[in-house]
Amino acid sequence: MTLWAEADELEGYPPEVAALLQEYQNTSDANGSTIPSIFAYRSDSSGRTLIDFESGLIVASSETISGLKQRIVEVLLTQIDPSVIDAHTAYDFGLINQKTKKPFFFNQIKDHDGESIASVWRAERFANFLIYNELRHAGDFSIVLSMVATHKQLAGAKYVRYVLESTRSHQINPSLVMAIMETESAFNPMARSRSNALGLMQIKADTAGRDYFTRIKGYAHTPSSAYLYQPAQNIEIGSGYLSILARRYLVGINDPKKLEDAVIASYNGGAGNLWRSLNSSGNRKQAIARINKMTTREFYWFLTNRHIRSETRDYVRKVRTRISKYEALLTNNGNGALPVAINPIEIIAHPPTGLFFQSRSIA
């Protein structure tokens, strides 16, 4: 789906925005973005909007100033949560969640007075301000809007309830699930990759999705795209698949920390590539024996320096760093912590997996 087709349309944007739009153009297809952190759409023949959940940048454009104002108001008041509406239906944009009475980006976007936006009046007022102060005209009229600095933390907070529910059921570290979700999609519920991995945890229907239903639900089924775009269901399948990796495909790794790192690597690159990284013939038994001889530090170094997939090497670094962040946020009720509605979670290492946890109040 082409949104910014010509090079001259990128002129006048800040370098980071032009690079973002160019990356989108190079990787999108007829169905839209294949960069999981980006959601892009046309709301009419001339209106174009791109939202990058990773950087927090929003680009809106239209052939007319009145059309641009409409695009801005759409973003400010939209409800792109697929559990509420079909985000790809143009006339659904602008609807406020009837349950919360708040737009999807409430608190993630503040107006020029530093206020959150939840009314048509405030949205139109901010749109007028942006058009007057930030208008760009290179072909179409456009504006670039930045979310608040803590936008990803606020985005992740929307899904904490689902994460705690699913990780209790599957005895998985909730900080691991939050870290994977941020790394996979930057909390974009409509995320889609080139390989058609979908939703918050980037689930492939015919692999992780089917494995979940076969091994956990007990019957063969391949979930639909619509099913995987539902946040609660996507997180449930992702958590279940992490449990399958730990308790089936990677069983035999005897240290909880090494097992968790192996789960992270395998969620991204597959267990087979983990074995092949450790053993030239991909022999599972010999690979596990080699892992068990390593210290936790040696195994982490191996994954981040010697795994056969460079993407997986980077992935393990990112997820491991983010796990520490979410352990602090999920167990701390103050100073910027995620707003968890139930008692805090204390993560504990419980051999033999290290992924088990208990829930109890923390003084």
What is the fold's blueprint, element by element?
Blueprint: H1 15-27, E1 38-42, E2 48-52, E3 57-62, H2 65-77, H3 120-134, E4 136-138, E5 140-146, H4 151-157, H5 160-170, H6 174-185, H7 205-217, H8 225-228, H9 231-249, H10 256-269, H11 271-278, H12 284-293, H13 296-305, H14 310-330, E6 345-347, E7 357-359
Antiparallel strand pairs: 1-2, 2-3, 3-5, 4-5, 6-7
Helix pairs in contact: 2-3, 5-9, 6-14, 7-9, 9-10, 10-11, 10-13, 10-14, 11-12, 13-14
Overall geometry: elongated
Helix content: 40-55%
CATH class of the largest domain: Mainly Alpha
Derived structural class: alpha+beta
Intertermini distance: 52 Å
Task: Give the number of DSSP strands.
Answer: 7
Largest sheet: 5 strands, antiparallel
The radius of gyration is 22 Å
Q: Can you list the strand order of the major beta sheet? A: 1-2-3-5-4
State the CATH topology of the largest domain.
Lysozyme
Tally of separate helices:
14
* CATH architecture label of the largest domain: Orthogonal Bundle
Q: What count of domains describes the coordinates?
A: 2
Give, in order, the helices and strands: HEEEHHEEHHHHHHHHHHHEE
Assess the beta-strand content as a share of residues. 5-15%
**Which whole number gives the mean pLDDT?**
84
Overview features:
363 residues, alpha+beta, Lysozyme, 2 domains, five-stranded antiparallel β-sheet, two-stranded antiparallel sheet, 14 helices, 7 strands, 47% helix, disordered C terminus
